[in-house]
Each structure stands twice: as structure tokens, then as C-alpha cells.
From TrEMBL:
Region annotation (Disordered) ranges: 276-314
Its EC number(s): 6.1.1.20
Localisation per UniProt entry: Cytoplasm
Keywords, in A-Z order: Aminoacyl-tRNA synthetase, ATP-binding, Cytoplasm, Ligase, Magnesium, Metal-binding, Nucleotide-binding, Protein biosynthesis
The protein's name: phenylalanine--tRNA ligase
GO molecular function, a single term: tRNA binding
InterPro entries, alphabetized: aa-tRNA-synth_II (IPR006195), aa-tRNA-synth_II/BPL/LPL (IPR045864), Phe-tRNA-synth_IIc_asu (IPR004529), Phenylalanyl-tRNA_Synthase (IPR002319), PheRS_DBD3 (IPR040725)
Record GO biological process: phenylalanyl-tRNA aminoacylation
Length: 524
């Protein structure tokens, strides 16, 4: 039921007590929480002073309780043998039960209560003293034994268990009174007018109170880590890319990135293809995407765009399409190409985007209208047709950054990564040569995670290839590099989640989502 307020009862009992109160005796039926609440309330007002006494009680197990009621195993064995004048060894279990026969026989022999005559047990003692039973009866009463050896023995025989008990020793405090004084919680205009405020007794603030729990929504850990990443990007002048569309054509997800049409990533094993509609229109002006980009750039654009930005000229998508085809099939822009018959149909298949680089590609082709230094980022969902395990789902979030500038070098990318990951508390980066169809050189990024105490792969990066950038119409001397990582990995590390299903999906514990701390991407 409702917890009781024992405040007044404590004051009453103290009024007549001539020694400190022991709460176990004074309030045998009250819960520890009820007692503690009353004591804290009174102690915070100096009306009582109390000490916490911790001790351990011995409790009888069900087997021990049975012994208290019926006698020990050895007693039962002796009793049966005595009553019958003799019991064949083989029949003892039938008389007293298998367990009692086994345990009790040994002790009864040791105590010289019974002996063997051939294969028959016969009584030796006329009367016996059932010490085990008496010991347990005394434990039941006093909750203790007087020596450590007996305790070890009883624990080993699983006859007792230890339980911790907390009691309090309570005394009157300097401000003890038989009744709590009325406590005001507010200073009112009336009190000021009448002068009562001078003698009024105000309730002290309880700075330890936890506060009422708010029945409110909570941000998912992924959202919190995402917010931190966005903060880092915005602080460095990045513009967010519009990533609202999960479905892309092969063109934006693969072909425009110089991913060959036979690449394993374009296989059904790795990519989810859309069946209805199965095909996209060829790339063309996209007012909706344009509008989303305009909106996201608002503000930051003015900082970075050339002041005399030309009116966007209509893009020649036929040329772009033809150049993408050419660079795959025949080569161009200084590249020998892949030299395979390029299929328009393959290029127009609709897919769930497998990386946010599809969006970066769209944004970069748009940058070609007014080539200039630019920084873009995105954090959103991508899809891969992979087998699901403790650390992988078929969908996850990518954090991606793209930097365009004249005269960029690979060393600059490494330096940028060091700064960027340094802000997440990941230092001493290591770079390993890797392969992406759309970047050359490419590097996997490893970082030493101080919290985990080991090297972890944290991202993938590289310089976008001319075969990707030049068909867009970007000038040769405008270099672009990019990097990507998953949002899930740092989130799992941060929140110490080892199974992705504890973070996403129907098995997630909502208590974990509500209760976890706001993230700071700090040193651990
Ligand atoms: N698209 C890459 C991935 O999915 C990440 C990346 C982005 C690599 C940009 C290089 C440049 O892992």
C-alpha cells in the first residue's frame, strides 16, 4: 500500500524513550524505506540524529525449517532404527526417505547412535540429544550463531543463508520537539504585510530530491550523437545536404560515381532494388531537390559562394549522361575507362541508396554551375542487403563530409581527419590504403579508442576521381575529397551497447532510451 509517514510516531517514541531508539524494535512492521524517509525528514531539521547500523542475519532454508519441526536426518535414522529394533541397510531409504537415509546414516554412525550388525542397522544409544535441531532452533530465534566454524558448516550444508539488515539508532536532535512545526513553503504577500515572515518557519530546500519524473519524450541515442556531429560540421562551415530521399537511380548511386556496372556492390546480394516502379527517368532538372538545397544553404551560402554568382544556366543533362557513358565505356577526360558495353537500363534501375555519397554526387554536379570552394555534410540512412548480425543491420546511418577546393592535397585530407576525429576524442589516426571506384587514392581510417583500449576502423575516405568530377563539368583544378563513417559505431561505443538490436528495432528497451545521458563526444 501507500508508504506510511512515521514522522510523528518517531517523535512520540522519542518523547518517552530514555535510551536511543532501535528502529527494528520500535517499528517492527515498518519498511526500511518508510523509516528512513521519516528519519531523513526529521534529521534535516535537526530534530533527531541517527546512526545506521548494518548487520547480517541468518535465515533458515526450507530444509532447516523442516529439521526444526521434525528433527535432524540423523535423528530420524536413529529413531527409525530404534523403533524397529533394527533395519536392514537396504530398507533404510524406504523407512526415512532417500535423502535422510544418505545424510543421516553417516552422522548417526559418527555419533555412535547406531551400528552395523551384518547388513542390519541396530540402535546403540538409548536416548539421543539432537544437537543439530537445537542449534537450528536457536538460530531461528537469535538469527545468529556464536562461532565462525559452525556458521561455515551450516552454510556448507545449505541450512542457512545470510541476509543484510539495516536498523537505525535514533536520538533526539538539538531542535527536538514533540510536534513538527508548521512549515511554510512560500513567502506570501500577507506574511510580508503582517510581519509574520520574521518568525515563520520555512521548509528547508531539499537539494537531494530527484525531482518528479517527466512523462515526456526522449531523444534516441543516435539522434543525440547525430546532433553532436552536426554541431561539429556547422562549426567548421559545412552546409548540410538534402538527404530526404531514400530511393535513388543507379545513375546517382553508382554510375555518376564511376562505379562500373559489374561491380559486386551493384549485385542483388548487396543492394536492394526497387521493383515497382523499377526504373527512374534519366537525370534531369529537379526543382524539388534544388529547393531543398537552396533552403539548406541559406545563410552559409553567402559566406562561401562567389559574390557574383551567375544565374544557374540550365544543365545539359544529355551531355552529362553521354559523358558518364563515355567515361565508363570508352574512356575520356584523360582516363582509358573500363571498356565494357555500358547499359542505360542498368543505370536507370531504382535502388535504396547504398551510401549517402549518392547525395554528395548530386550536390557536386550542382556545384559545377558555380565551381568554388565548398564544404558539405550529411547524416542519414542508407541500406545494404547484407546479413544481419550483432553489429550490422540492413539499414544504418552514414555521416559523410565532402570538401571542394583548389589545390587540395591528400596530406590536407589527413590533417582534416585528425582535427575532425580529435573533436570526437579519437586521436593518433592511422591511414590504410583502400579501394573505392570513385576515389583515388582511398584510405581507411583507424583510430585508437582510449575507452576500448584498441584500434578500431572508423571510416573510409578518399580524393574523388576525375572520371567522376569532370563529366559533371567541374574544372580539373578543383579537387574534392570526402569521407564517410557510420553513426551507429560511435553511438554504440559511446553508450556501451554491444548488440545493435539493443539500439534499433523492436527489442530496444525504452527505459534505456529515456534514461541515457545526453552525449558528449569526449575522451571516452
Ligand atoms: N561511400 C563510402 C562508404 O560508403 C564513404 C566515402 C565517402 C568514401 C566519400 C570516400 C569518399 O563507405
Amino acid at each position: 500500500g501507500e508508504p506510511r509517514d512515521l514522522t510523528q510516531q518517531v517523535l512520540d517514541k522519542l518523547a518517552t524513550a530514555d535510551a536511543p531508539l532501535n528502529t527494528a524494535e520500535a517499528f517492527p512492521d515498518a519498511s526500511q524505506a518508510e523509516i528512513k524517509a521519516a528519519l531523513d525528514r526529521l534529521a534535516s531539521r535537526d530534530m533527531v540524529a541517527y546512526e545506521t547500523l548494518e548487520s547480517e542475519h541468518l535465515l533458515l532454508t526450507p530444509e532447516a525449517k523442516k529439521i526444526c519441526a521434525e528433527g535432524s536426518h540423523e535423528f530420524k535414522v536413529w529413531d527409525a532404527v530404534k523403533r524397529k529394533g533394527g533395519v536392514p541397510v537396504k530398507e533404510l531409504a524406504k523407512e526415512v526417505g532417500a535423502e535422510t537415509a544418505k545424510v543421516g546414516q553417516n552422522v548417526a554412525f559418527r555419533n555412535k547412535w547406531i551400528k552395523n550388525e551384518g547388513s542390519v542397522l541396530i540402535p546403540v544409544a538409548e536416548t539421543v540429544h539432537d544437537a543439530t535441531r537445537e542449534l537450528l532452533q536457536s538460530v531461528d530465534k537469535t538469527k545468529a550463531v556464536d562461532n565462525a566454524k559452525t556458521l561455515t558448516e551450516l552454510k556448507k550444508r545449505k541450512l542457512v543463508t545470510l541476509a543484510k539488515v539495516i536498523r537505525y539508532k535514533v536520538q533526539k536532535g538539538p531542535k527536538y520537539a514533540r510536534k513538527m512545526r508548521v512549515e511554510h513553503t512560500d513567502l506570501t504577500a500577507d506574511m510580508l504585510a503582517s510581519g509574520d515572515w520574521e518568525s515563520a518557519n520555512f521548509k528547508p530546500y531539499n537539494f537531494n530530491a530527484l525531482g518528479a519524473s517527466q512523462n515526456a519524450g526522449a531523444l534516441h541515442p543516435l539522434n543525440k550523437v547525430r546532433a553532436e556531429f552536426r554541431h561539429i560540421f556547422f562549426n567548421q562551415g559545412f552546409v548540410e545536404m538534402p538527404t530526404a530521399r531514400y530511393i535513388e537511380s543507379g545513375f546517382w548511386n553508382f554510375d555518376a560515381l564511376f562505379v562500373p556496372q559489374q561491380h559486386p556492390a551493384r549485385d542483388m546480394q548487396d543492394t536492394f532494388f526497387i521493383s515497382d516502379p523499377a526504373m527512374a527517368d534519366p537525370p534531369r532538372d529537379d526543382p524539388e531537390a534544388e529547393a531543398a538545397m537552396e533552403q539548406m544553404e541559406a545563410g552559409s551560402r553567402r559566406l562561401f559562394a562567389s559574390p557574383d554568382k551567375p544565374e544557374p544556366k540550365p544543365r545539359d543533362y544529355e551531355q552529362y549522361w553521354a559523358d558518364v557513358k563515355k567515361v565508363h565505356q570508352d574512356g575520356g577526360f584523360g582516363s582509358i575507362g573500363y571498356r565494357y558495353p555500358w547499359s542505360a537500363e542498368e543505370c536507370l534501375r531504382l535502388v535504396l541508396r547504398t551510401h549517402t555519397t549518392a547525395v554528395s554526387t548530386w550536390v557536386l554536379h550542382r556545384l559545377a554551375e558555380d565551381p568554388r570552394p565548398a564544404r558539405y555534410f550529411s547524416i542519414d540512412r542508407v541500406f545494404r542487403n547484407e546479413s544481419v548480425d550483432a553489429t550490422h543491420l540492413a539499414e544504418f546511418h552514414q555521416v559523410e563530409g565532402v570538401i571542394a577546393d583548389f589545390g587540395l592535397t591528400l596530406g590536407g585530407l589527413m590533417r582534416f581527419m585528425e582535427d575532425f576525429f580529435g573533436k570526437l576524442g579519437i586521436e593518433n589516426l592511422r591511414f590504410k590504403p583502400a579501394y573505392n571506384p570513385y576515389t583515388e587514392p582511398s584510405m581507411e581510417i583507424f583510430g585508437y579508442h582510449t575507452g576500448l583500449g584498441k584500434w578500431v576502423e572508423i571510416g573510409n575516405s578518399g580524393m574523388f576521381r576525375p572520371e567522376m568530377l569532370e563529366p559533371m563539368g567541374l574544372p580539373r583544378d578543383l579537387r574534392v575529397y570526402g569521407f564517410g563513417l557510420s553513426l551507429e559505431r560511435p553511438t554504440m561505443i559511446k553508450y556501451k551497447v554491444s548488440n545493435i538490436r539493443d539500439l534499433l528495432g523492436h527489442k530496444v528497451d525504452l527505459g534505456f532510451i529515456e534514461g541515457n545521458a545526453a552525449v558528449r563526444l569526449d575522451k571516452n
